[in-house]
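in:
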């Protein structure tokens, strides 16, 4: 992995009787997001977090804190941190493959966090043999290992030159969709309404390009910080109007007309595309202005 990236875990990947040395690297991080500190309005100073006894209202120091499980309202059994630590499974530093399954069988609602899985220099041949065999067979591997103090199930798939290992939610952690969807009415949509919706989909077809997705909330935060530094106010946000049921067909007709008009417009040029996303432009503006004023918003360390 490139310098500056630290492995989150190192161990072995075992499939059958073959083992190879591997490392896990974080594939997705929130470290670049703008973050805020909690400030005392009266003094402008940063505040510190303290723990208070809910009954005596006295401060409880760290050395006097322990874990507890509520068995009844306000009644707890005390569990020492050492007892909690003793329940952590002993790690043998091995990702052991239990089975290979068709990629199409995996429901992504079970996906938790992705990690890049790379080989060490001595195990590249075994690692690449597994990667290419999985690609050709169009399968993913289900493996288990003690990762980050818990026994975890991991889904391993070919990804570019390496593999990607995604920790999985357990079945008890994933809620059934039946409860969420139970109030959706049973309606059969057909005729012009369905045709217009299909037309809009047809005119908006594209390709998955993560680089084209702007984090509008992050860009808005950058604009806010920049405006505060410059002593300006932000323009009021436009109110989003939701189509009413009796206006839905009219909205679909209007959208279909707008789609047809958009097809005749010149497409975005490469020069415009290279100007960067809205968030990037806004963040650069904040960084530049804040650098001169010494008031840059703090970010988490990467």
């Amino acid at each position: 992995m490139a310098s500056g990236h630290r492995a989150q875990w190192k161990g072995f990947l075992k499939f059958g009787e073959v083992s190879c040395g591997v490392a896990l690297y974080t594939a997705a991080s929130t470290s670049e997001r703008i973050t805020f500190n909690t400030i005392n309005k009266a003094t402008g100073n940063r505040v510190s977090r303290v723990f208070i006894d809910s009954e005596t209202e006295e401060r409880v120091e760290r050395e006097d804190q322990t874990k507890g499980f509520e068995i009844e309202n306000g009644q707890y059994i005390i569990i020492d941190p050492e007892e909690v630590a003793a329940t952590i499974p002993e790690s043998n530093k091995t990702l052991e493959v239990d089975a290979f399954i068709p990629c199409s069988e995996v429901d992504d609602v079970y996906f938790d966090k992705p990690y890049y899985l790379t080989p060490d220099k001595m195990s590249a041949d075994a690692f690449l043999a597994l990667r290419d065999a999985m690609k050709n067979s169009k399968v993913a591997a289900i493996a288990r290992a003690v990762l980050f103090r818990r026994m975890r199930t991991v889904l391993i798939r070919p990804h570019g030159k390496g593999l990607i290992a995604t920790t999985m939610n357990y079945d008890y952690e994933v809620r059934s969709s039946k409860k969420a969807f139970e109030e959706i009415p049973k309606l059969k949509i057909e005729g012009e309404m369905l045709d217009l919706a299909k037309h809009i989909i047809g005119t908006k077809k594209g390709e998955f390009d993560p680089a084209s997705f702007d984090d509008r909330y992050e860009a808005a935060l950058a604009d806010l910080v920049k405006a505060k530094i410059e002593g300006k106010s932000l323009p009021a946000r436009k109110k989003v109007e939701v189509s009413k049921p009796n206006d839905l067909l009219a909205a679909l007709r209007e959208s279909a007309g707008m789609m047809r008009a958009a097809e005749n417009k010149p497409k975005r040029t490469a020069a415009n595309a290279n100007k960067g996303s809205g968030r990037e432009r806004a963040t650069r503006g904040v960084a530049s202005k804040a650098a001169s004023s010494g008031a840059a918003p703090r970010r988490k360390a990467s």
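note: The chain has eight helices and nine strands.
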